[in-house]
Amino acid sequence: MAKIYIALVDTPGLFAGIIRRVIRQRYIHVAIGLDPQMDEAYSIGRRHPAVPLVAGFEKEEKEKILRVFPSAEYMVCSLECTEEQKKFVVEQLRTAMEERFRYHYAVAGLPFILWKIPFYQKNHFTCSSYIAKLLEEAGICRWEKHFSLVTPRDFMEYEKKTKIFEGSLRELVHSEQRSYAAGQILLHQSEQLSAASERPVYAGASRREVAYEC
């Protein structure tokens, strides 16, 4: 079995506060990732974290988000899928990234979510409706409503997810940096041991003998 990853995000700000009151939930943004660290993650969201009014399909950059929202909170969850289903998702995400400027945030659809009326304008999505549609097309998730009505709350309440991380974005980024640093140290130690094992057993003694003869 393979896995797809979902990040539920809580960020501060006026616009975020409005969405939070509407959906009555702490987490107001959803991103989809291909790895548990969310190093390769995508969403319909701000093209730049500091500019809320310019939004579309983008690859998420955790460090950039952290600089703008140092108090952001994350919950990362995994969803099981087949290798074929993950391959479909990967292909769709990478194609969308190549055509990212064709995608826009579905501002006009927001009132329809409140009225619970399905609404779809071509290539216009909310963060949750895009991922809901993609996962449904891949056969990974099934929703009891039109994808345009799916909100971050639905992902929060989705029973088949497995939570693998919950905490601050700072903690997520720094834990990854610590893991990378530890990996580099282990790699360096391994290289040293490997180099030592390649030396002749009596290399040290030979050097001493040469010095003595001189």
Q: How would you briefly describe this protein structure?
A:
The protein has 214 residues and is α+β, with helices and mostly antiparallel strands. The protein is built from 8 helices and 8 strands, in the order βαβββαβαβαβααβαα. The strands form 2 sheets. Strands 4-3-2-1-5-8 form a 6-stranded antiparallel beta sheet. Strands 6-7 form a two-stranded parallel ribbon.
Write up this protein.
It is built from eight helices and eight strands, in the order βαβββαβαβαβααβαα. With 214 residues, it is of the alpha+beta class. The chain starts with a strand and ends with a helix. Residues 180-214 have low confidence and may be disordered. 29% of the residues are buried.
CATH class of the largest domain reads: Alpha Beta
Q: How is the biggest beta sheet arranged?
A: 6 strands, antiparallel
Overall 3D shape: globular
Determine the number of helices (DSSP H or I, runs of at least 4 residues): 8
Number of strands: 8
Mean pLDDT over the residues? 82
Strand neighbour order, sheet with most strands? 4-3-2-1-5-8
β-sheet strand percentage: 15-25%
Radius of gyration: 24 Å
Quaternary organisation of the protein chains: single chain
SSE pattern: EHEEEHEHEHEHHEHH
Helix content: 40-55%
How many domains, as an integer?
2
Looking at the overall shape, the CATH architecture of the largest domain is Alpha-Beta Complex
Question: Could you give the topology of this structure?
Answer:
Elements: E1 2-10, H1 14-23, E2 29-33, E3 41-48, E4 51-59, H2 62-68, E5 73-81, H3 83-98, E6 104-105, H4 110-115, E7 124-125, H5 127-137, H6 152-156, E8 162-168, H7 169-197, H8 203-213
Parallel strand pairs: 6-7
Antiparallel strand pairs: 1-2, 1-5, 2-3, 3-4, 5-8
